[in-house]
Amino acid sequence: MTLSLTTPRPLIAGNWKMFGLETSLDEARAVAAAVASKPPAARVALCPPATLLHRMSEAMAGEGVLVGGQDCHQSPSGAHTGDVSATMLADAGARLVILGHSERRAAHGESDALVSAKVEAALAAGLEPIVCCGETLAQRDAGQAQAVVTGMARASLPASLAGQDFAVAYEPVWAIGTGRTPTVADIAAIHAALRAVLIERFGQHGATVPILYGGSVKPDNAREILATPEVGGALVGGASLKAADFLAIIDAA
Asked: What is the mean pLDDT of the chain?
């Protein structure tokens, strides 16, 4: 990736999803040690399950690896059994939070309006949101991918993001965990459309917001994906669970 003085550093964020126990922190420590010994061109983040968030934050302190949550409730507190607020994430050491991931949208029925409310909550807690959007295979096959993704982005990004640190992640639903990825041309087209939405919504600020690609990013395809126009980093799933694989993707940025 070629960076100018006005282009922010790419962001490589690992989403551990519902994986990880105490012993998994050894993989995070290995990532942190490598990042500390050879600072990469990209910012690096790991988003573990909530049970590991505080322990990972303590382990990563001062090591150059940001820690993030995988979701937050739209309210700062309340009678919401089983939910975690953005304020709680920040209190546990999080700096970022993934919002609107397709698995949340599909399994928990999250709407664009709810995702937008969660973004507001994250900003209020001082967290940097990573806002996800992507199409299903049926939508892509019907020629609706660009319309679906840009519509999702417009509705999920509140006006309060203006001037704030945030990222958008394009994650084609059909590519997540399947080993399939869109062509480079497909990725470039969606990222260009998302860039147009960001500029439309946020002006010059929108021209520099990182647009991450997510969906079966692996060491063997990361360099090509990250070199694609308007790709400002990656949201990495399974490959972020192993330090060696995640570091290879970081090195590709």
From this structure: 95
